[in-house]
Amino acid sequence: MSDTTPIEQPSRLTSGDFTESDAPFVLFDAWFEEARRSEPADPNAMAIATADAGGMPNVRMVLLKGVDERGFVFYTHQTSQKGQEIAANPSAAAVFHWKSLQRQVRLRGPVSLVSDAEADAYFDSRPRQSKIGAWASKQSSPLESRLAFEKSVAYYTAKYAIGSVPRPPTWVGYRIAPLSIEFWQDRPFRLHDRIVFKRERPSAPWTKFRLYP
């Protein structure tokens, strides 16, 4: 005999705290601040998906290093695999998953370089050894041995033993200007809340609608 007991919903389907928002970046800032307090490690971790010139996708984890109304910023080498893929196909998708909050944020849009001034300012804020590592690593290139990498680190440590460490010319920042941002909140019985903001271009106004879970 089938169970005809009705499902008791512990709370309303519409949480009301975020589904009524009309400002995606304001909403992201609020969720990100909550994630900073609740996530045990790297609340700014995001998966970045890119594709090469042939359309083959690739995904990896990076760290968000800046966000404002212009978009979401991360840093890497232009000569890295993702740097080459962005050069061939300047668009990307990203997702944040905050397990402690049972939330996701998904976004996608065109990618552009941040200004040299912005990249310099962020590079200057990094620990000295991280700056040395940026010089020592030929990111995504084959590495013959760990010892070869350690020798490269030693070389640049000696080279920049005195004074400041400049930013490598290929070490740059990328900004994703989202054309869509989706906010996902876990709910009981897979009756999740999802809203998505979309626009035709980075300067266009947002439209918002709900999605079935």
TrEMBL record:
State the Gene Ontology terms under molecular function: pyridoxamine phosphate oxidase activity
Superkingdom classification of source = Bacteria
Its EC number is 1.4.3.5
Q: Is-annotated flag, keyword RNA-binding?
A: no
Task: Give the enzyme class.
Answer: oxidoreductase
* Cited PANTHER family: PYRIDOXINE-5'-PHOSPHATE OXIDASE, PYRIDOXINE-5-PHOSPHATE OXIDASE
* Similarity-based family: Belongs to the pyridoxamine 5'-phosphate oxidase family.
Q: What is known about its subunit structure?
A: Homodimer.
Q: What is this protein called?
A: Pyridoxine/pyridoxamine 5'-phosphate oxidase
- Native organism is Rhodoplanes azumiensis
Taxonomic path: Bacteria, Pseudomonadati, Pseudomonadota, Alphaproteobacteria, Hyphomicrobiales
